[in-house]
Amino acid sequence: MKKHSVFISVFFLIFSLNVQAGSIEKKYPTVDVDLKAVKVSKHVYFVQGKAGIATDNAGFISNAGFVVTNEGVVVFDALGTPSLAVKLYKEIRKVTQQPIRYVIMSHYHADHLYGLQVFKELGAKVIAPQGARVYLASDVSDNLLATRRVDLAPWVNESTHLVPADQYISTEYKFSLGGIQFKITPLGNAHSEGDLTLLVEPDNVLFSGDLIFEGRIPFVGQANIFNWLKALETMRNVNVSAVLPGHGPLAKDPNALINMTYNYLSLLKNTMQTAVENWTPFAEAYAQIDWGDYMFLPAFDAANRMNAYNVFLFMERTNQ
Ligand SMILES: [Zn+2]
């Protein structure tokens, strides 16, 4: 190719990327929340949602992050509305003009998911845990989207849709981009039908998704509490320099963070297991538990009783 035609191709590539980016920004309603990327390590950036329930803070209640390499950007989780994803994209553009190559999804839950269509439109490849297929095939995903179109209007609206992954992961998966090594570890059905973590190897930074909550009560939902606890035990043994959780601030002392989630889940598991074994009715068992360490944390009133009840039902199912 001649020099001037290379120049013209590059010009049109940059021009079309800019048009694409501009149209992405115009396509979605703007959202006025404080979303700023913080640099965590040489290549890793993090945005932190505000602690609260799903509809607080215009849906910005979960975290996300991105990794900048000189061959493109890897995004981790997509936030709870397309408008939030556009804001995240703008933060990325403050740091680099590299294309968005991958979005790695920790799991498919609404608060991390509805922004995905923005990155898909920007040409990213989506990687998710195998269990995301279960979520996508369930009525829960459609029903929740319908509910959020009301609760999170105008940011979640008729054009918001569920985006399937391009690749589903069920065994450890490593890849490299721009000389940076990434390790994806799927953990099976733990917090959700399928969870994974992402380790950015040269920075020794771990994106944990919702296996770890910091500064609020975890959301248990349909979790397999045994697998979740096992996954946390495994993570205790990885000596990372920072953990970026799915909710709450990043941890420079990862074990303290892991322990908070681990202790809370252990309390639920032990008390509900005992209740089921002794045929104690749920309400009675619940009333006897000392929630002292957790009752002043955000989301306690909204989530705790339902968490305990879900674990109670899980124990009844697994006891049979
Ligand atoms: Zn979440």
Order of helices and strands: HEEEEHEHHEHHEEEEEHEHHH
Q: Which homologous superfamily in CATH is the superfamily?
A: Ribonuclease Z/Hydroxyacylglutathione hydrolase-like
Please state how the strands of the largest beta sheet are arranged side by side.
1-2-3-4-5-6-7
* Poorly predicted ranges: none
Helix count from the secondary structure assignment: 10
Description of the structure:
By secondary structure, the chain is α/β, with parallel strands linked by helices. The chain has a single domain (31-319), classed as Metallo-beta-lactamase, Chain A (4-Layer Sandwich). Helix content is 41%, strand content 19%. The protein has ten helices and twelve strands. The strands form two sheets. The protein has a seven-stranded mixed beta sheet. Helix 7 (225-236) packs antiparallel against helix 8 and helix 8 (254-277) packs across helix 10. It is globular. It starts with a helix and ends with a helix. It binds zinc ion. Residues 62, 109, 111-112, 210, 246-247 line the site of zinc ion. The site of zinc ion has 7 residues, from helix 3 and strand 12.
